[in-house]
Amino acid sequence: MKRFVLAAIAAVALGGAAYADTIKVGVIGPFSGPFALQGKNFKAGIDAYMAVNGKKVGNDEVEVIYRDLPAADPAQSKSLAQELVVKEKVQYLAGFYFTPDAMAVTPILKQANVPMVIFNAATSAIVTKSPLVVRTSFTTWQTSTPIAKVAYDAGVKKVISVVSDYGPGVDAENAFKAGFKKQGGEVVQAIRMPLSTNDFSPIMQRIKDSGAQGVFAFLPSGPTTLGFVKAYNENGLKSAGIKLFAPGDLTQESDLPALGDAALGMQTTFHYAISHDSPENKAFVAAADKAIGNPAELTFPAVGAFDGMHVIYKMIEATGGKQDAQKAVDAVKGLSWVSPRGPVTIDPESRHITQNIYLREVAKGDDGKYYNKEIQTFEKQGDPGLAAAK
Ligand code: PHB
């Protein structure tokens, strides 16, 4: 007791500083299984942030605790989150690659007094499920709205939509349909395929049979996006002149070597390209390359995690390390900074990130490496899906 009092006096004497605490951040993501590369990118983004900014906020030490959730599994996501809160006493929950995993945890945030910072899950409605959710990734409404204009401007008037049948796929389909209709185009057919689909030949046949001039597609980045784009090439759709339009999930950088020349010229819209030309991004890529070990594996979830850590550090700073979820979330409403992706703001109402969306084209550099080359910027895009989500 005596020692405790002396320590307290010493702490106050040192400029009123509070005791040094360990603030735990629980991160749930796919760290094994088919989507392990996406989880590895969460970790690379976190490690890069902590390498650049240190592991301390004020006097408090930040500790990240990881829990592996290999596939979309809402029940398991909820029990991992509960275990992190109850046993590990985490003050923050973060990560969440798949929408259903984030959705399943929103009901426990209030009672647990814990904010959730989403590094990836991209269905618009998630932020409406709890006032304690903040998102630093993107929504498929945000990324799929501009590609509708790109498709129409490319002279394509009839499109078939193909999406994974769950939250972000349904949002992507609705966003594309709304955007394309506004331009004057027509979505002639809309296919929703089970998330587990990995044989795309029958879908490719349906696309050919539809008579559409183009296909809009969304699948969550991972082995199946690679499979889908390969099937598009190998089933002769590309050579038949049926154009593929998609958000950037379909051309994540780590998939480009496997796609090879077949993906050259493919246009996508997205919030982040590793090639983004800015000093902030150069610094990020250098730190993230080091963190991931193999630069060829670096892809977009790393930037969601890097910016997510920025938000968490600001929350810890604003609460002086004390557990006050509402105060932490309120502190980042309206927060603006220059992310590796460009200028961003946490929208004070939706708590979702406002950001530029870029049109990019798969290109081959002088070094022979494939990359997403940014060719147009849609500035300061909020989330058009929020009205639909309410
Ligand atoms: C999601 O489940 O929300 C999700 C996953 C991967 C993506 C996009 C969205 O690439």
UniProtKB/TrEMBL annotation:
Chain segments annotated as transmembrane: none
GO biological process, one term: amino acid transport
Domain (Leucine-binding protein) ranges: 22-365
Signal peptide: 1-20
Alphabetically ordered keywords of this record: Amino-acid transport, Signal, Transport
InterPro entries xrefs: BCAA_transport (IPR051010), Leu-bd (IPR028081), Leu_Ile_Val-bd (IPR000709), Peripla_BP_I (IPR028082)
Family in the record: Belongs to the leucine-binding protein family.
PANTHER family: LEUCINE-SPECIFIC-BINDING PROTEIN (PTHR30483), PERIPLASMIC BINDING PROTEIN OF ABC TRANSPORTER FOR NATURAL AMINO ACIDS (PTHR30483:SF6)
Protein name from the UniProt record: ABC transporter substrate-binding protein
UniProt lineage: Bacteria, Pseudomonadati, Pseudomonadota, Alphaproteobacteria, Hyphomicrobiales
